[in-house]
Amino acid sequence: MNLELFLLLATALFCIGLFGALTQQSVVMLMMGLELMLGGVIVAAAAAWHYIAPAAAEGQVLVVLAVTAMALEMAIGFAVVTALFRSREIDMTDMAAELKE
Amino acid sequence: MLSEVAFWGLAALAVAGGVMVFRFDSMARATFALLTSLLCVGGEVLLLGLDYLGIVIVLMMTIEMAIMAVFMIMYMMNPAGLTPMTMMHNKQGATAICAAAFVLLAAGILSTPWPARRGKPPTDATMDLGMSLMGPQMLTMMTLGMALFATIVATVVLATRRGRYDRLGDSLRAPSTDDPIRGGVGR
Amino acid sequence: MQQRRRTTAADVALTRLGVVLLPVAALLAAAVVPLGFRSVSDLADGIVWFNAMEALAWAAVWLAGWGPNSTLALIGGYRFLAQGLAYELPHMLAITTAALGAESLRVGEVVDTQAGLWFAVWMPVAFAIYLLSAMAMAFWGPFDQPAGRDVAGGAAAELSGVDRIVFLGGRWLLLTVAAAFSVPLFLGGGNGPLLPPWLWTVLKTVAVLAFLVWIRRKVPTLRMDRYMEVAWVVLTPLAILQALVVALVVLVR
């Protein structure tokens, strides 16, 4: 195990998540893509802490930050979907794009 | 040796879980594939010596995905995947973008001369994190706290249908609130 | 030769996963519960570990409810998630209070700190909240709506044969483990006069468990939408106040 392997794993998770976020039409599925991307960020931050500067706590703080971002993204995402669904009965990104018209 | 095996096992499971999220027809399966993937992320973090953060990730993701499953099933047209259908757009473009991003990032990772390890891991990484969050990183912690609080307010505002005028009447003077579900503290 | 009950278009894999996960979660949580002064693994973050493993029950009960493709089972699964949202917040604050009193997340140190005075004596609110959530996490007694009679057994409605015994056994195991974990957290663990430590642990666990079983006969079932408001409006602020008091005591001590 070394830093490169962990970062490659993080990249793989990030790119799978990116694929999901770009392709999924449903807002909830899109958020699952975002979660995976943030999962990649967590692995990368933890690996950077372990292999580059374990004495400083900043790497750990970065993991806390990513975990909080996940929670915020989930909560706001679901609230937006609920509000969208309530007003328009839609849950797809393509349909939400029509809102601007 | 053991940690080597654990790394590869968890990494394979994390990536496989991540791929399956977008391949399963059943939303329940997709959610729990994502949970598998994120639990493996927690496992990798444990492997890196961050015990507290690894366990917290496991705790948080379990609860988060359980809640997520509810929303998935509430809002998807085909929650159980009994009538297979695809809900994707721009598949080729996204595949190209993601492959390019992976190649670029991987090339970057492999060609960067990473700095040598500075310092030793503390004996108690949890203590280190706590001291940092309550000391030099206090501003980060306070920002996170404010962001979480703002999220609570924003989600309630976005998700609720009834405001105070619905509950307390037009002049807000109703003797008791008019709620569809009365709750448990004697309203 | 009898077969297990089958339902149309069931997701058998997810049902089995949920059924097996419940006892597995209870066993994993039990790894940090000491018998006397020794546990399977006295992790540095044992208290967080217990909480994380016990949260796996959320996934387990929901999966067992979702899998059979049956309305009543799914209602049971949803009810447990709602109940989870209600009990988890005060529960986390209660166990954090015990960790705060010992200034450590290690269960062994929490026990050592209680050599003199039990935490239950000077953190009564946290202890009471813990007992409530112990019942809620095992959907037991007044919190048994996820597997309630009004929905024909809820999450367990469609389970039969070995699935049923594993699931309901897992629920018992979870209740026992939750009761056992209250001993090192609040009741001094293996500390006590005359008798050996392991016997003290067992006696205290049996006492807590007996209390939880007794209360099942005394208190009617609580609806989780009611408990939700009680938990968030009454219990959470109380738990925070309790943590505040403990924090002040720890600072002055």
TrEMBL record, chain A:
Q: Which UniProt keywords apply?
A: Cell membrane, Membrane, NAD, Quinone, Translocase, Transmembrane, Transmembrane helix, Transport
Q: Which organism is it from?
A: Streptomyces microflavus (Streptomyces lipmanii)
**Keyword presence, Cell membrane:** yes
Q: Which GO terms describe its molecular function?
A: NADH dehydrogenase (quinone) (non-electrogenic) activity; quinone binding
- Record field: catalytic activity: a quinone + NADH + 5 H(+)(in) = a quinol + NAD(+) + 4 H(+)(out)
Q: Tell me where it resides.
A: Cell membrane; Membrane
Q: Which residues form a coiled coil?
A: none
GO biological process terms, alphabetically, are: ATP synthesis coupled electron transport
Q: Name one GO cellular component term.
A: plasma membrane
* Membrane topology value: Multi-pass membrane protein
Q: What is its EC number?
A: 7.1.1.-
Question: Briefly, what is this protein's role?
Answer: NDH-1 shuttles electrons from NADH, via FMN and iron-sulfur (Fe-S) centers, to quinones in the respiratory chain. The immediate electron acceptor for the enzyme in this species is believed to be a menaquinone. Couples the redox reaction to proton translocation (for every two electrons transferred, four hydrogen ions are translocated across the cytoplasmic membrane), and thus conserves the redox energy in a proton gradient.
EC primary class: translocase
Family, per entry? Belongs to the complex I subunit 4L family.
Superkingdom, according to UniProt? Bacteria
List the lineage, top down. Bacteria, Bacillati, Actinomycetota, Actinomycetes, Kitasatosporales
Query: What's the protein here called?
Result: NADH-quinone oxidoreductase subunit K
